[in-house]
UniProtKB/TrEMBL annotation:
Coiled coil: none annotated. The chain crosses the membrane at residues 35-59, 79-99, 111-129, 141-160, 166-188. It holds the Pfam family DUF3267. Keywords: Membrane, Transmembrane, Transmembrane helix. Residues 1-20 are annotated as: Disordered. Residues 1-10 have a biased composition (Polar residues). This is Zincin peptidase. It comes from the Archaea. The keyword Transcription regulation does not apply.
Amino acid sequence: MTTSEASGSDLTRAPELPPTPDGYADPYEFRYPTVGLLVGSSVLGIVSSVALVALLTLVHGPEMFTFYEVTVDGETTTFAMDLTAIAVPFLAALVVTTVVHELLHGVVFRFYGYDVTYGVAPSMGAFYAAAFGQFQRRAELLRVGLAPLVGITAVCFPLVFVPVPIVALTAAFVLVLNTAGAIGDLYATWRLRGLPEGALLYDVDIRYSYVYEPSA
């Protein structure tokens, strides 16, 4: 879902915009605050990582983290780590999170009758599921935006308690990646909640989105 911070009504870069619907004011651009979202994503990633490491340790004990070992021999301390034990769950979590996150956006879009486009924007480092060229209702977008965070958390959080290390660790990685990756969705939800009832969004493409507020 492409949304962002209001930045005026310069529409010259997006001639594809449709006529303004009756009863609505002229649209204004919506844009992501890129730096703020990067900082927010980092904070969410760190906080969720610390919380999940503490939870895994509490539930499964220190032996959960057998992929590293510290050996002290006199004045020499040796640190060894089995990268495979970390890399496999992490890569699996990365793939699952990326695919399922966008798929859930798309499923909810489809539930409300929108045509969905899936894609990758390398210049933005983003995967996306979007309803380009369609007026999108504020109330529906609130559900579209939160679907991956709510859905993936509901499925993966119980898996952290499964007494199989690779399952619990993979679930924890998914939760961290999904939570950190949901910063844009959380920002969009916050902005959408501040819009009036009946507001519409229109995504021209992955770069340009516009808000139409009711004029009355």
